[in-house]
Specification:
255 residues, mainly alpha, Glycerol uptake facilitator protein, globular
């Protein structure tokens, strides 16, 4: 048998169904890990006696780690977006076909809602009043004004979400470039998302991801649902800016 015939054949490219399943799983993992940490562990046992709670740093790490492990688990199947803003930026930058974007968005929203639903179901089985208090506290939702952890205004939150999403997309597009060192994209992306959360949890509770915001807001009550539009709009604007600017800035060609 010749060396050519004995070499293993390359696996077939993933089907769209498998790509969408990967996006559902990855976004589910992101919301389960990040929102779950915020709901169950950020102030454990309570805000006044927070001797064991993970606080802002723990929540930031939870979001960064879930993206990191999700990318290494299924990123080779779908690209590991887990975020409608990432999909938009990738499409604008020519990394994925535009025709794939709507299906990715639907898969990401489904995955996010599944993740927040699991968190809510677990919360219902907690101590008396736990789920009610989690919902009354916004269920780790994003917000501005009185729903911002630090009381930041709509304008401040809008600027933070646009700028930080653009930064996130610049890192993603750079780390996944064929010129970048192979195998390190997940680490760079996960650490960047951690950094973004460290900056902006006090400002907006950190979105940079419309699917994450929608998933939490559906259990956060009508007040946070009324503000979720900003956390859909601002990340998409930031992603659009980065998607348009990346190639002329860093690759010397037009988008």
């Amino acid at each position: 048998m010749s060396a050519k015939s004995s070499a293993p054949s390359a696996p077939p490219p993933p089907t769209m169904g498998r790509k969408l399943a990967a996006e559902v799983f990855g976004t589910f993992l992101l919301v389960l890990g990040g929102v779950g940490t915020a709901v169950f562990a950020a102030n454990f046992p309570d805000a006044e006696n927070n001797s064991l709670g993970v606080g802002f740093v723990g929540v930031a790490l939870a979001f960064g780690l879930t993206v990191l492990v999700g990318i290494y688990a299924v990123g080779h199947i779908s690209g590991g977006h887990f975020n409608p803003a990432v999909t938009l930026g990738a499409a604008v930058a020519g990394r994925i076909p535009w025709k794939d974007a709507p299906s990715y968005w639907v898969a990401q929203i489904i995955g996010g809602v599944l993740g927040s639903t699991v968190v809510y179901v677990i919360a219902v089985g907690g101590p008396d009043g736990f789920a009610t208090n989690a919902v009354a506290g916004g269920f780790a939702s994003n917000g501005f004004g009185e729903h911002s952890p630090g009381g930041f205004s709509l304008v401040s939150v809008l600027i933070a979400e646009i700028v930080l999403t653009a930064v996130f997309l610049f890192v993603i597009l750079g780390a996944t470039s064929n010129r970048a060192p192979a195998g390190f994209a997940g680490l760079a992306i996960g650490l960047t998302l951690t950094l973004i959360h460290l900056i902006s949890i006090p400002i907006s509770n950190t979105s940079v991801n419309p699917a994450r915001s929608i998933a939490a807001a559906i259990y956060g009550g009508p007040d946070v649902l009324a503000q979720v539009w900003l956390f859909i709009l601002a990340p998409l604007v930031g992603a659009l800016i980065a998607g348009v600017a990346y190639r002329p800035l860093f690759e010397g060609r037009k988008p």
